[in-house]
Amino acid sequence: MTATTTVSLEAHLNERIADGRKVLLPYVTAGITDDWVDLVEAVIDAGADAVEIGIPFSDPAMDGTTIQEASVVALDRGMAPAQALDELRGREYGVPLIAMTYYNLVYRYGHERFAADAVEAGVRATILPDLPMEQAGDWATAAAEHGIENILLAAPVTNDDRLAQIVERTEGFVYVVSTMGTTGERSDVDDAASVLARRVKAAGDRPAIVGFGISGPETAVAASRESDGVIVASALMRKVLNGESVEQAASFVGEMRAALDAAYPAN
Amino acid sequence: MALSEHPIADTFPEAASPTHMGLPDAAGFFGEFGGRFVGEPLIGACQELEEAFIDAWADPEFRNEFIDVLRDYGGRPSPLTECENLSQDLGLRLLLKREDLNHTGSHKINNVIGQALLAKRMGKTRLIAETGAGQHGVATATAAALLGMSCTVYMGEVDMERQALNVFRMRLMGAEVIPAMSGSRTLKDAVNEAMRAWVAEVTDTHYCLGSVMGPHPYPWMVRTFHEIIGTEARQQVEALTGGLPDVAVACVGGGSNAAGLFAGFADDETVRLIGAEPAGGAAAGRGVPAIVHGMKAYFMQDEVGQILEAESISAGLDYPGLGPEHSHLALNKRAEYYPVTDEQVLDSFQLLSRREGIIPALESAHAIAWVVQEKEQLAGKTVLVNLSGRGDKDVRQVQEILDVQNNTVNGAPK
Lengths: 267, 414
Ligand SMILES: Cc1ncc(COP(=O)(O)O)c(C=O)c1O
Prior knowledge:
Structural class of chain A: alpha/beta
Strand content of chain B: 15-25%
Largest sheet of chain B: 6 strands, mixed
Largest sheet of chain A: 8 strands, parallel, barrel
Number of domains of chain A: 1
Number of domains of chain B: 2
CATH topology of the largest domain in chain B: Rossmann fold
CATH superfamily of chain A: Aldolase class I
Number of strands of chain B: 16
Shape of chain B: globular
Bound molecules: pyridoxal-5'-phosphate
CATH architecture of chain A: Alpha-Beta Barrel
Oligomer: heterodimer
Radius of gyration of chain B: 20 Å
Strand content of chain A: 5-15%
C-alpha cells in the first residue's frame, strides 16, 4: 500500500467538498518535460486536490490538439506506461493521483500488473475514456483489488437511464464532459455542463467534476456553479508546451485555486 | 431487442460462429473481437445507428432502394471476367470479380450508398468520412452529391499528396477535404480526426466509416452492405464453371472488400478464403489484439501497446489494423492472411495491365500478387480474385516509381 494516502479518492474529495470547497484537478502529461514530476508536486502545492497523470497514447481519439501535441512530445521523449509509474514512485504527494489514459495501454500492461504498479506509484483511480461502462467490468474488478477506483464519464447526450447507471457504477467521481467535442481550451463553458452537472447530482451523491474546456479562473468558477469542481488539462499543458517553467505553470493553477476559493468560500 | 430476436435475424440464419459470417453478439463481438470501445459522447450515436440499421435492413423498401441505386447508379452487378491469358501463364483458372467497374472505380460505393441512404432515413444532413487512397472519400462525396447532403472528408496529409487527383475529385463534387496532420498523417490519423469531428457534430452528422472497422455496428453493417460482392460472385462463378471456386482472394486494408467477398463463401468449407495484406501493414497473425478505433482487433503495435504506423505503396492499405470479423476468422483459421511486398505488387500491377488490359488499383494488385506467388500450389485450381478497384488513381505514382527504377521517361527509354 502506498504511504501517500490511504483514503479512497472519493472519500478524499467528499471530505473537501463537505467543507464547501470546490475541487481543482490539474492534468499533467507524463513525460511532457524532464521535470514533469516536479510539476505534479508544484500543482499540488498550488492547491490541487488531486492530479491527473496523462499516460501518452499514440491515438488519443478523445483529445483535442493540445493534448495530442503533449502526447506526441512525451512519446518522442520515450515515455511509456511503466516508466511513467516508475518516475512517480517514491515521493509523497499528499493527494491522490489519477491515471488517465486509453484502455489499450492498460490492457497490454495487464490489468493485474497495472493496478499493482499504479497503486505503488500513488495512483488511486483511473480514467479510461474509451472504456465505456459495459466493457469496464474486468478492469474495475482488478483495480478494486488494489484499492483503485475507476471513474466513468457522462456526456450531455447521455440519457437518464444510462446516467443513473453511470452514477451508480462510477467510483471516485463522475467525470462531467462539458461539451460534445474533444478536450481543449474554450472561451466559455457550455450551458450543457451546468445542465449535466445538475442531472448528475440529482441522480445520486457522487462528486460531479467538470472537464473539457476549462481554460482558466473564469471558466473554472463558472463551471463549478452546479458541480463540485473542475479538471484543467489543455490550458495547463499549453503553457508547458509554450515553454513556461514549473513555477509559471503552477502559478496558473494557484490563480484558479484563488478564484475558486474567492467565489465559493469554505464553510 | 437482442439482435438474434429481431426480424433481421432471418436473413442471417445463424449467429456468427468460428466459421460463419453471421450476426455479432448483442455487444457487437465476433468471438472475442469487436465491441464498442468509444467515449461516452459517442455511445448514444452508435446505439442510434445500430437501431436504425436493424430497422432499415428489415425493411424491404430500404433494401430495394439500396439495390436499385446500386444497379441504376452504381452499375451493379459487376461482371465476372475470366482471364484467359494470365490463366495460361500461371497454370490455373483465374476469375476476376470486377468491382473496378463500379461507379467511382471501386467496391467502396456499395457501403457508401448503403450508409448514405441510411443517414438520410435517420434525418442526417451531413456525411463525414475518413479516407486513405481517396477511394472511400470519393465514393462518400459522390453519394453526398447524389442525395443532396453536405460532406467533409478527413485525409492524412501524406495521402493528400500521394492521391492529389482524388482530392480534386472530391472537391469537384462539392466535398470539403481536411488534412489530418497528427501522427503518421495517414489513414489511422484520418480515422482519429473523423471520430473527433463526429463527437462535435453528432446530431446532424453521420460518420460514413469506410471499412469493416470501428465500433459496433460498423464492422457488421459495412460487411452487410458489401455482401452483394460475394453473393453475385458466387452465382456468377457457379454459372460459368458449374461449381464453386477453390480459392477466393482479396486484398485487406481494414478488410471491407474481403469481407464482402468472403461472406459469399464462408459457409462453403471447400473454398479457401485468402486475405492479402501489405508486408508493411500486416496486422493478422501477430497474436495480440489491441483496443483502438472503437474496437478490439488485431493491430500492429509496439510492446507497450502504442499503435504502429503501417507502410505500404498503396495508401488504401496503409492501415495498421485488421477488422474484428477478420480477426475472428483469422484466429479460427477459417480465413488465412498473408503479406506481399511492394515489389511483388508493382510486378502484378504491370502483369495484369500487360496480359489482360486491366489496370488494377495498387490495393487490388496485392491479391493478384499472392496468386502469382502461390501459382505452384494453385496449379489447376479455380481462383477467384476480387478486383476491388481500378488503377487510374495510381498510374501517376507508378509511373514515377518505374521511371526511376527503369531509368525511363514516361515509360520509354531515355
Ligand atoms: C481499390 C481499393 N481496394 C481496397 C481498399 C482497402 O479497403 P478494404 O480493406 O476495406 O477493402 C481500398 C481502400 O481505399 C481501395 O481503394
